[in-house]
Give the backbone structure.
Amino acid sequence: MLDDLDRALVHALHIDGRAPFSRIAEVLGVSTQTVARRYRRLRTEAGLRVVGLPDPHRAGQAQWTLRLTTAPAATEHLAHALARRPDTSWVKLTSGGTEVFAVVHAPHDTEFSRALLLRDIPRKAGITAVSAHCMLHTYLGGPTAWRGRLQALTGEQQARLAPERAAQGGDASPLTQADRYLIGALSHDGRAGHAELAAATGRSQATVARRLAELRAHGALFLDVEIEPRALGAGTQALLWMSVPPAHLDAVAGVLASHHELAVVAATTGPTNLLAHALCSDPADLHRYLTRRLGALEEIRTLETAPVVHTLKAAGSLVPAARGPRAHGR
């Protein structure tokens, strides 16, 4: 479990994952050395990591959720194989270890996703059922976060840490191949220095710094914080698959997005049309949430609960990013 300073540091990194330790220390009222020491300890003991991720819409990506029912002997091997793929995130073992859940990121042209969904997956031994659902809209998730890690700083402290945003409307220029190398490096370490990012992209440090600031300011790139939920008191996780009449979907999803027990709320295709990720202290807490808070929403017609046994991969890359143009033979 984290203490108050640990939680304040996690909250600060969520506000600006690349904020210098000196600025975080000033806002928290401690020394820079203390912040750096706490950060290193949390990386080692609680899996703390800042990762840089593209806005899917601006990157031209569609997101698909995969549910793979497997024979018990095949589950671990399949989950690790999916986690190693560069096009996956949030790879989880659910339902007592008999099901693998993953999010697949694919270009909108569908050829890439078709290869995974129709060719690669069916060839894996031990799979007994496959279902895939396109994520149509995210109500909670992405650059927003589970409120369980956003309760440590005052409004004044949050304002002092908030990064600058674009002063005027408009989008950043379209993503280039060098930008994709940049985002790939940041998906492994969102706090990587400009020298490391320059090596990954083949650009100068000044160019990298300028482009990184532009992508962040226009929302084309955001920083997320990964940390073991148990460190924040969430010992029980579950994926919730719900069916809601389309006329009530936005309203119900908006209510769910305000629940502090949820980290993700998204509309999907398929026999169920609303997916949520719940984080609770223990099974009894999850039961209270399902029966009292969700149970009060009469528009939810069906609910399937899939407990999360283990998370093999979160939002960022599982392995270090490739080293830019030279690593790709250019």
In short: The longest helix spans residues 32-46. The chain has a mean pLDDT of 88.
